[in-house]
Specification:
InterPro entries: DnaJ, DnaJ_C, DnaJ_domain, DnaJ_domain_CS, DNJA1/2-like, HSP40/DnaJ_pept-bd, HSP_DnaJ_Cys-rich_dom, HSP_DnaJ_Cys-rich_dom_sf. Among the domains are: 19-95, DnaJ domain (Helix Hairpins); 123-151 and 222-265, Urease metallochaperone UreE, N-terminal domain (HSP40/DNAj peptide-binding domain, Sandwich); 270-343, Urease metallochaperone UreE, N-terminal domain (HSP40/DNAj peptide-binding domain, Sandwich), CATH 2.60.260. The protein is 27% helix and 28% strand. It has helices at residues 4-20, 23-26, 35-49, 59-73, 76-93, 103-110, 134-139, 285-290, 350-361, and strands at 126-132, 141-152, 167-169, 178-186, 189-196, 205-207, 219-230, 238-242, 257-263, 271-273, 276-284, 291-297, 303-309, 317-320, 336-343. A four-stranded mixed β-sheet has the order 10-11-15-14. Strands 1-9-8 form a three-stranded mixed β-sheet. A two-stranded antiparallel sheet has the order 2-7. Bound molecules: zinc ion (ZN) (2 copies).
Amino acid sequence: MLPTSLFAVLFVLFGLVCAATDLYKALELSRGASEQDIRKAYKRLSRKYHPDKNKDPGAEEKFVEIAHAYEVLSDENKRRIYDQFGEDGLRAHEGGHQQYANPFDVFSSFFGGGFGGQQTRRGPNSIFEVEVSLADMYTGASLDFTIKKNVLCDYCRGSGAASDRDIHTCRACGGTGVKISKQQIFPGMFAQTQSTCNECGGRGTVIVKKCPHCSGQKVVEYTQPNTLDIQPGMPDGHEVVLEGEGDESPDWEAGDVILRVRSKQEQGGWRRKETSLYWRETIGVDEALLGFKLNLTHLDGHIVELHHKGVTQPGYVQVIEGEGMPVFGQSGHGNLYIEYNVVLPVDLGSDMRKKLGEAFYGSAYHGRDEL
Ligand SMILES: [Zn+2]
Ligand SMILES: [Zn+2]
């Protein structure tokens, strides 16, 4: 919050500067600037010159000036009056004494302060499912990728016209975007109906020569490089939001790109459920009967020693605490569950068969061997 005295100072300055400066120049724009250009310029400049941030001499005046320029140029009606008749026209429009909006209200309403007023449409969000290997989910990673999206054409800055001179006020509607037609409903009695101008689609302007770069489409396709930062243990379905990276258009403020992260299911390998990890280990009948010591290479390459004394039943699950997935945003790890699968040899040599027989049945085994 600003001290009241500063408010007072700003309002005094306000009256002085606004009369003097061209509103387009204040926003560093040309007369053909689109609605989107105006918003973008205000967004950039108002942040730059906000008195909370910028203590340079002159920044305050600039902030006030920018707010006033935005307030007028973002309002179709006021902009049209300003374009034709300048500040004097605006004053006349307001009934002699022009009502200036509080520059801080303009700022907070723009940045979501809930001032009401008209809200710019937001473009659609784009959602992408991204499959990430478990190893990357375990250690964390930076993954480079590209998204194809529409960006405003550089050449025409989203106007679709070859130059500012090629944007003409629509003759059919005189720039209002609406057509008023009179219909006779009774002899001598007329009704007025208002409809969107079909010549200009309600824009009030027509383009006589299309932009050669985008063929009048206003946007061009662009392949944008991006980086997705995977934090260790990122949960399945976690959404990484790239704000304002969606398709651009002069008709809206770009939406977000949402990357929904999923763990890749790798066949026969590691499986994950939340912070738990699962691994299926295959052991021989000898290991199952006599016990074993094995090395398991974990997702990041470190070795986990698996050992079991005595008999291991097929399907036995061993819990190894703290060797699961990292807990997202915290310290520590979940558990690792090892399920043992016992394989029997395909064939026993006669020597082995004899020895096993003796082991199981003692001397009584002799004779059965001939069967
Ligand atoms: Zn263009
Ligand atoms: Zn028109």
